[in-house]
Amino acid sequence: MERLWRSVKYEDIYIWCYETVLELRRGLGRYFGFYNEERPHQSLGDRTPGAVYREVGAMKA
């Protein structure tokens, strides 16, 4: 969890410097879409969290 919030802060919040709560909500929505579906994670074998989630779901079905 701490790694996630570090990434959010350094890869999004500090870069964009949101001025309103609405901007922040939109920006975080955009960032989490990127984080889960496009950004490879070294700890997941350079796969995305979304890909891992779908793989596990397919195994259970």
Which structural class is indicated by helix and strand composition?
Answer: mainly alpha
Number of helices: 3
What is the H/E string? Answer: HHH
Largest sheet: none
The residue ranges in which pLDDT falls below 50 over 5 or more consecutive positions are: none
Question: What best-fitting shape do the alpha-carbon axes yield?
Answer: elongated
The number of distinct β-strands equals 0
Give the termini separation. 28 Å
> How many separate domains?
1
Task: Please write out the topology.
Layout: H1 2-16, H2 21-37, H3 49-60
Helix pairs in contact: 1-2
Write up this protein.
- The radius of gyration is 14 Å and the shape is elongated.
- The termini are far apart.
- The chain contains 3 helices and no strands.
- The longest helix is centred in the middle third of the chain and has 17 residues.
- Helix content is 72%, strand content 0%.
- α1 packs across α2.
- The protein has one domain.
- The mean pLDDT is 96.
- With 61 residues, it is mostly helical.
Features:
61 residues; mainly alpha
